[in-house]
């Protein structure tokens, strides 16, 4: 794809994310010309901050699509602050009523999801909470952290690619 085509797709189909590190960026999935699928790609115009060894040249992109591992801006705005020092934990209730534990130490760009679910399945964010072994919603701050060792938590994905676009 040409850079203009990628920028057009991003601006027409993906909500921008703005932060202090990358400025305005867009999160998407891509297929490369060799057929490789990359589920998590962050597009940014901030070239000087692209220090990752996971950089992607836009000239290698064959097709781009929405990312199923990126929370919408609406969902991101519902996640409220740090739960514990260096940890933000929350429960996501899905449209089918099932609940899952999610958490991050810092990054909110991309998240792993339970099998068969994506960001479009989220119905509600329950902040500073987790689902215990009895499938009950608990508040982090009311319980010992030892209780959390055996629960499944879907974490942020740190293994994503960064693609610089001058025209973004």
Concise account of the structure shown:
It is built from two helices and twelve strands, in the order αβββββαβββββββ. With 168 residues, it is mainly beta.
User: How far apart are the first and last residues' alpha carbons, in Å?
Assistant: 15 Å
- What helical percentage do the residues reach? 10-25%
**What radius of gyration results from the CA coordinates?**
17 Å
Describe the main β-sheet briefly.
Answer: 6 strands, mixed
What is the total tally of β strands? 12
Shape: elongated
Low-confidence stretches: none
Task: Bin the strand percentage.
Answer: 35-45%
Task: Break the fold down into its secondary structure elements and pairings.
Layout: H1 3-13, E1 17-19, E2 23-32, E3 37-44, E4 55-56, E5 61-66, H2 73-78, E6 88-94, E7 99-104, E8 122-127, E9 129-131, E10 137-139, E11 153-155, E12 161-164
Parallel strand pairs: 3-12, 4-12, 7-11
Antiparallel strand pairs: 1-2, 2-3, 2-5, 6-7, 6-8, 9-10
What does this protein structure show overall?
- The longest helix has 11 residues, at 3-13.
- By secondary structure, the chain is mostly beta strands.
- Strands 1, 2, 3, 4, 5 and 12 form a six-stranded mixed sheet that branches. Strands 8-6-7-11 form a four-stranded mixed sheet, with no helix packed on it.
- The model has no long low-confidence stretch (mean pLDDT 88).
- It starts with a helix and ends with a strand.
- It has helices at residues 3-13, 73-78; strands at 17-19, 23-32, 37-44, 55-56, 61-66, 88-94, 99-104, 122-127, 129-131, 137-139, 153-155, 161-164.
- It contains two helices and twelve strands.
